Amino acid sequence: MGDLVLPLKTFYWKVNAQEPAEEVIKQAGEIIRQGGLVAFPTETVYGLGANVFDRKAIAKIFNAKGRPLDNPLIVHIAVLADIYQLSSSVSPLALYLAEVFWPGPLTLILPRPETVPAEVSAGLDTVAIRLPAHPVALALIRAADVPIAAPSANLSGCPSPTTAKHVWADLNGKIDAIIDGGPTEIGVESTVVDLTGAIPAILRPGKITPAEIEAVAGKVCLDPAAKGIITSFKTDTTSEKWRPRSPGMKYRHYAPRAPLYLIEGNVPQVTKYINELASRYQKAGLRVGIFTYKETAEHYRQGEVLVAGDRCEPASVAANLYRILRRFDELGVDLILAEGTPPVGVGLAVMNRLRRAAGNNIIRLGDNCWT
């Protein structure tokens, strides 16, 4: 793909999220058209954008993030009609889902035409498409006058960025510009639905839940990867021959620097077990982080205790998830002990990310633990 040259400087523009400055958006759109990289806010997380039709620009995304080349990207559009530029076959169901959930945190996987570079989809014959709801994202896509391929704007494998500060910490000097539109609202990536099979398949959970998809699409299936349990996959996702159909399926993702241990089970068992582990590790001279919820925070008297939100309101946990994981990095903890939460509704998206961040460090207490 040719030599990849780092930008001389990363521009940083702070804008009003609802009415971004026209001049900033114009400059950012020109950077995209010229083959550069721009980080921008969406309603889910910050994205790192490039011209979807520019192979060299797409290569820059993978290079800046250190992203494996077999991990596909999501393409962002500003109007529904642009879906026909990006897919060789748009089904009535795809249009129905788009009409119900777009603009919003839903990504549709459809057949890829030859006009979309194979690099965007990691060589797959499909393409992932989303129409975001954030005013800055929509303005940037319109200014660039081209669909924008954009994974999360972070170093590969790290917690996704929900503020421009996170992007700056990871990618300053590696990309051309960052548009600061304030913190994101949802806090976890979009729900990804594969529409290329006989039954729609949820590959990655997000704010839009399986029940909401099913209410519109009829029967849907949940890919094993959506649960986030690496060791439970029927497919050997560590195999070089296996290629993920969506971001977030194959690799350990969303992980802070310190090892994260996820404890799943009923609340009394979990809090007792975490306290015992924290005591043991602290006696060994380790600095312990504890990821918890408002309902259970009072159970902990040791370690760096950070509250992610309400267990009974998983959307509040999703909104804070990556900020909390990055905060543990800032505190310099040696390990993190994280409480699980029931994988229901938006809780499924939270557990998908926590399980991915933990890798194989998952401890399940009791015979009737979550699956």
Tell me the strand order in the biggest sheet: 1-8-2-3-7-4-6-5-9-10-11
Approximate helicity band: 25-40%
- Described by the principal axes of the CA atoms, the overall outline is globular
Low-confidence runs (pLDDT<50, min 5 residues)?
231-240
SSE order, one letter for each helix or strand: EHEEHEHHEEHEHEEEHEHEHEEHEHE
Radius of gyration: 20 Å
CATH topology of the largest domain: DHBP synthase
CATH architecture of the largest domain: Alpha-Beta Complex
- How many separate structural domains? 2
Largest beta-sheet details: 11 strands, mixed
Tell me, what is the CATH class of the largest domain?
Answer: Alpha Beta
Measured by DSSP, the beta-strand proportion falls in 15-25%
First and last CA, distance: 43 Å
The SS-based structural class is: alpha/beta
Query: Helix tally?
Result: 11
> At the fourth CATH level, what is the homologous superfamily of the largest domain?
DHBP synthase
Number of strands: 16
Rounded average pLDDT:
92
